[in-house]
Write a structure and sequence with these properties.
Largest sheet: 7 strands, parallel
Structural class: alpha/beta
Number of helices: 8
Bound molecules: flavin-adenine dinucleotide
Radius of gyration: 21 Å
Strand content: 15-25%
Distance between the termini: 45 Å
CATH superfamily of the largest domain: HUPs
Number of strands: 17
Shape: globular
C-alpha cells in the first residue's frame, strides 16, 4: 500500500499536524510506503527531511512562485500532479483550515469519498476504521472506506506524532509543476491570532468567558497560558463583548480544540461552547456559580471568583512549572 501525506507549513515551519498525519498513515497500514508531499515557494529540502525523520519513507516537493501563499487552485494543481505520478492507495492530511479547503476539492477531482475530521484510526486486519465526532462532538461514529482511495483528514492533537528519529533516511525529490491560471490573488495576510502557540494545536488552553469582564481581564489569562506554554482561547460571549478577537473563539461556530489541558475561566458551558472543547483530555473549570453547566464536563472544578483564583493559581504555578 502507498499512502500520500499532504504536509503543511506556516511561516516556513512545518506544522506538527504534518507529523501527526504521517503517524495516522502508519495507523492505516504500518507496512505502507509513506510519501510526504510539500508545496511552497522556497526550498523545501530541509522540511522534507523532517517529514522523513518523523516516519515518512520519502518526500516529493513542489515549489513554484504561485505557491507562496495557499490558494485552493494552486495547491490542488500541485498536489494533483503528484497524485497522478504516484497513484497512491490513500491520502491523509490535517483537518486544518487548509485541509478542510483542499481535500474536498481533491476528492471531487478524484471521484472518491473523504472521511473528514478523524480523531482515531484502528486497523482491524484488512481495513482501517476511522472514528470521527458527529452532532458537534456529542457522539462518535466509526467509518470505513468501502471503495476507492482511503482519503481522510485528521483532527490536530488527537493522533500523536511519531518520535523524531534523525537516523532515518529517504529521498526528497522535487516535481516540476506549472502552477497557473490562479484566479485568486492573495494581497495581504493579516494575522489576527496572537503570536505564540497556535490555538488549534496547543496542548494547554486557558479560555476566558464573559466572566472575565473586560479586555484587561484577559491579561492574567495570557500570563497563565505563558507559564504553561499554552494559548489563550475564548467563549463567544467574551468575543461578542469585545474582550478579545473572534479568532480566539472556541465552539460550534469557532475552533474545535482537543488540548491535554483546558482551563475554562468564567465560562458558563453553553452547549455551543462545549461542542468545541468537551473532548479535551483534562478540563478545569473556574466559575463562581456552582450550578454552571461547565462543571458537568469538568474533571476539576474550582468554585470561586476568578479574580481571586487566577492570581493564586499563577503564583503557585510560577513556583512549580
Ligand atoms: C448558533 C449559535 C452558535 C454559537 N456558537 C458558539 C461558539 O462557537 N462558542 C461559544 O462559546 N458560544 C457560542 N454560542 C453562544 C453560547 O450560546 C453562549 O451564549 C456563550 O458560550 C456564553 O459565553 P460565556 O460562557 O462566556 O458567557 P455567560 O453564559 O454569560 O457565562 C459567564 C460565566 O461567568 C461566570 N462568572 C461571572 N463572573 C465571574 C467571576 N468573577 N468569577 C468566576 N466566574 C464568574 C458566570 O457564573 C457565568 O457562568 C453560540 C450560540 C448560538 C445561538
Amino acid at each position: 500500500m502507498k499512502l500520500l501525506v499532504i504536509g503543511e507549513a506556516r511561516d516556513g515551519e512545518l506544522r506538527n499536524v504534518t507529523f501527526e498525519a504521517v503517524a495516522a498513515a502508519k495507523k492505516i497500514d504500518s507496512d505502507a510506503e509513506i510519501v510526504g508531499v510539500l508545496c511552497g515557494s522556497d526550498d523545501l529540502n530541509e522540511s522534507g527531511q523532517e517529514v522523513i525523520y518523523h516516519g515518512a519513507d520519502r518526500v516529493v516537493t513542489v515549489t513554484h512562485d504561485n505557491l507562496e501563499s495557499y490558494t485552493s487552485e494552486g495547491y490542488s494543481q500541485a498536489v494533483m500532479a503528484v497524485i497522478e505520478d504516484e497513484s497512491p492507495d490513500g491520502i491523509v492530511m490535517g483537518h486544518t483550515a487548509i485541509g478542510k479547503d483542499l481535500t474536498p476539492k481533491l476528492a471531487a477531482k478524484l471521484g472518491t469519498g473523504l472521511i473528514s475530521d478523524a480523531t482515531d484510526i484502528e486497523n482491524d486486519g484488512d481495513k482501517a476504521v476511522f472514528t470521527r465526532p458527529i452532532y458537534s462532538g456529542k457522539a462518535f461514529e466509526k467509518k470505513v472506506m468501502t471503495s476507492g482511495l482511503t482519503f481522510a483528514t485528521i483532527r490536530p492533537n488527537n493522533i500523536p506524532a511519531l518520535e523524531r528519529d534523525a537516523s532515518r533516511s529517504g529521498d526528497v525529490t522535487s516535481k516540476e509543476v506549472d502552477v497557473k491560471d490562479i484566479n485568486t490573488v492573495i494581497k495581504d495576510v493579516i494575522r489576527k491570532a496572537s503570536e505564540g502557540v497556535d490555538l488549534s494545536e496547543a496542548n494547554v488552553i486557558v479560555a476566558g468567558g464573559r466572566g472575565v469582564k473586560s479586555a484587561e481581564g484577559f491579561e492574567p489569562l495570557y500570563e497563565l497560558a505563558d507559564i504553561l506554554g499554552g494559548a489563550v482561547g475564548a467563549s463567544r460571549g467574551a468575543c461578542d463583548a469585545e474582550y478579545c478577537d473572534y479568532s480566539l473563539q472556541i465552539g460550534q461556530t469557532g475552533k474545535v480544540v482537543t488540548p491535554d489541558l483546558y482551563i475554562a475561566v468564567g465560562i458558563s458551558g453553553a452547549i455551543q461552547h462545549l461542542a468545541g472543547m468537551s473532548n479535551s483530555k483534562v478540563i478545569v473549570a473556574i466559575n463562581k456559580d456552582p450550578e454552571a453547566n461547565i462543571f458537568n464536563v469538568a474533571d476539576y472544578g474550582i468554585v470561586g471568583d476568578i479574580f481571586e483564583v487566577i492570581p493564586k493559581l499563577t503564583e503557585e504555578l510560577k513556583q512549580t512549572v
